[in-house]
Amino acid sequence: MSIGKKIKELRRQSDMTQEQFADLLGISYQAVSKWETEISCPDLSLIVPIAKLLKVTTDELLGMVPPESDAKKREYDDLYEKAHHPEQYELAKKASKEYPGELKYIDWQASCLYMRTFDDYLTQENFYADLEKVLKLYFVVFQNAADEKLKNDSLAGIVMTLSALRRNDEAEEYAKLYPDPPTLDKNTVLNWALTGEKKDKHQQKILMNHFDGMLDILINKKDIDDKNLQCMETLILAQRMIEMVFPSGNYNRYYEEMMLISIFKARIYEYTEPQNAIAELKRARFYAERFDELFMKAPVSLRFESPFFDLLEFNSNDLLVYGPLEENKRIDTFKWWLSGKLFDGIRNQKEFIELT
Q1: What is the Cα–Cα distance from 8 to 258, expressed in whole angstroms?
Q2: Arithmetic mean of pLDDT over the chain
Q3: Environment class of 102 (CB within 10 Å of its CB; exposed 0-12, middle 13-18, buried 19+)
Q4: Distance between CA 354 and CA 339 in Å, rounded?
């Protein structure tokens, strides 16, 4: 919409005639008429007074609608949140094409393409070629983003992608650019203010954050292709930590971590102790099914059965899902792990085939 048409629309919404509008601006009504019929445009010096008179921002007056008020962008955001992975990538490409230079959509493309490289893995050559495309997209965002969060998210994506490309020295250099948190974070300061059960609950949240961080490092300490037995020690430690923290045997959302631990242990056992590998995969399947039973049927909130986290609960709405719950079952994740080349050493065994 031209500025003249915008002025006409807003003037009418304000219930002003051309004469009234012109008088308030101290100009002739003929000038206003020329703007609205697109014969001429307002002088630059009048833009701010016009915007104030019409009670809009200069951006709105000039048609520069901010993202949060752009209905089409809101529609893309809503669709992206509800879509599952393959659809998200197509949405990201479509949004980027419609809004060239919109860095958020380029970041969407990068993150979706990164996940797709693993889903569509055929050869190492193709895998690395796709990752190079991901890296280029992340660099576009990182080098141009003014928003600090978006810039940091793309920086994390660069580090992650460089690591997947085995360019670890470069990954380390970019990781050093990631900003440190404040000396005192919000949780620390809030902890000073709370008392009683509020303080206990808050401290449990802090403890759980540290617990999650330790598990993440232990479970993902080595590359999945590394069959070094030292990896087994860290996996066993992670498993025992979960078992000690949840002595009831109800692991709540940590069934997913237990599933991954068993899958990675099976990977190490695959060639040297195939029966142990099968046993671990059976456990992994049980953990996947238990997770789905708890969280993949309908939204639910479950309290943790743990002396360390008994004041906390996990809401399934906090799960990272793409599309309907039934399309995000962990049993499908389990089968995905088994479908690749990781377990070629035991793939032909009857018990393995039954698991798939």
Answers
A1: 64
A2: 87
A3: middle
A4: 13
